[in-house]
């Protein structure tokens, strides 16, 4: 009865609007675009770009209780063929108790075109579209034609396709199962426990199987997410659908009749809080570990020296510590908010995203030079001057947060990956936890008198220690300069050297005046800093050098992993970047060692490197799929294994040699 009423309602809504078809008025803009030129015998991605008018919406492949799906009639040259339409995840719209699966804003439906082997010149592609566009009160069936003359050859690609693909549900490789239990359709979807689920919803692709407007419930076991759906009619074969996990990630699955687990815990608000607490404490521990990194440790040590100079002034020490903590939390929070804003805008970005831009690398290089000269006593940087006060502490904490971003240690990757799947407020709390962990040692020194009393008494040793701390900071400056060369080539290197020399000269002049007790000539220094800042706008992504990895492995792609596994070979994949300190240490100590390379070669292992030095949406999407927000990440695909083994972030040669040896045996 409901289906009949639905049909009648849709007919009533459509009839008064059908007269508009002849008037030429259109409420949905349509266009056909290609990702890039066509290569003979290969595939190229096409997109049907749909742009509804304000207040109007289009429909998903299963429109729900009302509406109708879009139909496309293609016209290709002989030998060309199109794959199925691939829709992004829709939203839900309830009108008169009818559930609709719709798109209220612009969306793109993707399709892969198989290019003929003998293609040349241009390929004329034509399509006729038949679709329904509606408001909450009226529907209009529209028809339109799109055309594209696709060049054959090579050329640039359209960056919008990365954003459109990111909105598609990811195909689930493992088979799901379903069973009918009374008036419920139970669907068991394979899902590892490590994958975050907050507010799931299942969109059925198979029609007439469930009642769309009724409530859905979910429970979870260690390796299954079980949906209990209101049954309309039992499926006659496979049941297909898309499960939206409520985290910005969705999976497309196909289920066959089979057993469904009876146990499991309900998925709801408690699950979200559990994940939030896990991610928050993981971020705190990860931030604590960051204090041991070469670029952060000198700053922490300087603040400890400031405490030692303060002696027993407990009030000043605590105010300074609170200022430092606030600066660290605000610093990581601002970086996290910027990351969330970029991802909300469709960009594929991850932690330390700013270091994928050479202009930020140049700024980090100049900052490292200034801190090094300060540690050497050649000038006094107000932020690190050694005086205990809340304002100076806040600035130092924010500085520590910024220079810590190239690093990611244990606990951080999983915590940040979870943060990117949580609602915005929860994600910001996790980023704040990272800043809290960064500031925790200084907080303990300030608020635990027994710890502060263990600090050595002030003396000449403090100056010697400060000079020693200049060494790791100078090495950090050299690392930033090397990264600038990797990203910007010779022009980036020259720009860094000139800017660094100008900044160094300005700071040395200021230091000499400070030593004589004179003003540091703030105006000339500001002028010189502005002179240094001008080149920041002269180096861009277009000048980035191509990163070469030599014999360390071929460039990663999911297709290469699949091909190697199909051939029965083990696969070792490492995700790295030139700005990732932990990555470089593992490469030098383990991956690039001759004994490890020989073992992998003897096992006929495919070694693939995913280089994230420059922004790469494919790598970012894959990290998201693994619940990771940062690198390094090391995966070992054993022959015949269903899932890869995720290796620890601190690698040892024995780990890889042992796994390679197991394959040979």
Automatic annotation (TrEMBL):
It comes from the Bacteria. Residues 281-477 form the Cytochrome C biogenesis protein transmembrane domain. It is found in: Membrane. Its main location: membrane. Residues 1-19 form the signal peptide. The keyword NAD does not apply. It is a multi-pass membrane protein. The keyword Transmembrane applies. Keywords: Cytochrome c-type biogenesis, Membrane, Redox-active center, Signal, Transmembrane, Transmembrane helix. The chain crosses the membrane at residues 275-300, 321-342, 362-381, 393-414, 420-447, 468-485, 491-509, 521-539. Residues 36-148 form the Thiol:disulfide interchange protein DsbD N-terminal domain. Gene3D superfamilies: Glutaredoxin. PANTHER family: SUPPRESSION OF COPPER SENSITIVITY PROTEIN, THIOL:DISULFIDE INTERCHANGE PROTEIN DSBD. This is Protein-disulfide reductase DsbD domain-containing protein. It comes from Sphingomonas kaistensis. The lineage of its organism: Bacteria, Pseudomonadati, Pseudomonadota, Alphaproteobacteria, Sphingomonadales.
């Amino acid at each position: 009865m409901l289906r009949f009423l639905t049909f009648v309602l849709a007919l009533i809504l459509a009839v008064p609007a059908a007269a508009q078809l002849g008037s030429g008025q259109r409420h949905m803009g349509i266009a056909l675009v290609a990702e890039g030129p066509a290569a003979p015998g290969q595939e190229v991605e096409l997109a049907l770009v749909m742009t509804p008018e304000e207040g109007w919406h289009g429909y998903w492949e299963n429109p729900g209780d009302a509406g109708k799906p879009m139909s496309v009639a293609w016209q290709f040259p002989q030998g060309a063929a199109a794959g199925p339409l691939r829709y992004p995840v829709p939203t839900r719209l309830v009108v008169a108790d009818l559930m609709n699966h719709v798109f209220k804003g612009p969306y793109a439906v993707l399709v892969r075109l198989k290019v003929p082997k003998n293609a040349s010149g241009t390929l004329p592609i034509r399509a006729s579209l038949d679709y329904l566009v509606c408001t909450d009160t009226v529907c209009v069936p529209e028809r339109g034609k799109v055309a594209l003359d696709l060049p054959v050859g090579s050329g640039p690609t359209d960056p919008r396709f990365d954003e459109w693909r990111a909105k598609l549900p990811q195909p689930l490789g493992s088979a799901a199962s379903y069973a009918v239990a009374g008036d419920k359709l139970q669907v068991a979807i394979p899902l590892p426990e490590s994958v975050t689920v907050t507010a799931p919803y299942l969109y059925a692709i198979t029609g007439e199987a469930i009642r769309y407007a009724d409530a859905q419930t979910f429970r979870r076991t260690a390796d299954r997410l079980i949906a209990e759906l209101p049954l309309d009619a039992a499926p006659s074969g496979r049941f297909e659908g898309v499960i939206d996990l409520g985290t910005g990630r969705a999976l497309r699955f196909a289920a066959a009749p089979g057993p469904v687990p009876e146990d499991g815990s309900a998925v709801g608000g408690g699950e979200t809080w559990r994940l939030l607490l896990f991610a928050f404490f993981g971020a705190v521990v990860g931030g604590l570990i960051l204090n041991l990194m070469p670029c952060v440790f000198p700053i922490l040590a300087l603040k400890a020296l400031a405490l030692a100079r303060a002696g027993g002034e407990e009030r000043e020490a605590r105010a300074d510590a609170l200022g430092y903590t606030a600066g660290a939390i605000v610093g990581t929070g601002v970086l996290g908010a910027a990351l969330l804003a970029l991802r909300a805008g469709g960009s594929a970005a991850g932690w330390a995203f700013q270091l994928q831009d050479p202009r930020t690398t140049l700024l980090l290089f100049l900052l490292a030079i200034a801190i090094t000269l300060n540690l050497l006593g050649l000038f006094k940087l107000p932020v690190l001057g050694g005086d205990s006060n809340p304002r100076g502490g806040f600035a130092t904490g924010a500085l520590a947060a910024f220079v810590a971003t190239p690093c990611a240690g244990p606990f951080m990757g999983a915590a940040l990956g979870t943060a990117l799947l949580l609602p915005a407020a929860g994600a910001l709390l996790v980023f704040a936890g990272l800043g809290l962990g960064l500031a925790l040692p200084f907080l303990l020194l300030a608020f635990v008198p027994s710890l502060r009393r263990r600090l050595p008494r002030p003396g000449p040793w403090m100056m010697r220690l400060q000079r020693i701390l200049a060494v790791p900071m100078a090495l950090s400056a050299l690392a930033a300069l090397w990264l600038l060369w990797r990203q910007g080539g010779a022009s980036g290197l020259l720009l860094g050297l000139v800017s660094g020399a100008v900044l160094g000269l300005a700071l040395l002049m200021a230091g000499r005046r400070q030593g004589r007790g004179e003003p540091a000539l703030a105006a000339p220094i500001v002028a010189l800093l502005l002179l240094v800042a001008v080149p920041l706008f002269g180096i861009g992504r277009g000048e980035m050098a191509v990163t070469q990895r030599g014999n360390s492995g071929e460039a990663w792609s999911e297709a290469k992993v699949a091909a190697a596994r199909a051939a029965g070979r083990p696969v070792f994949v490492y995700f790295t970047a030139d700005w990732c300190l932990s990555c470089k240490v593992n490469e030098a100590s383990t991956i690039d060692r001759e004994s490890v390379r020989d073992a992998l070669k003897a096992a006929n292992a495919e070694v693939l490197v995913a280089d994230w030095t420059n922004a790469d949406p494919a790598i970012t999407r894959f990290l998201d799929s693994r619940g990771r927000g940062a690198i390094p990440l090391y995966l070992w695909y054993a022959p015949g294994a269903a899932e890869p083994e995720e290796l620890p972030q601190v690698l040892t040669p024995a780990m890889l040699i042992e796994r390679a040896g197991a394959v040979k045996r």
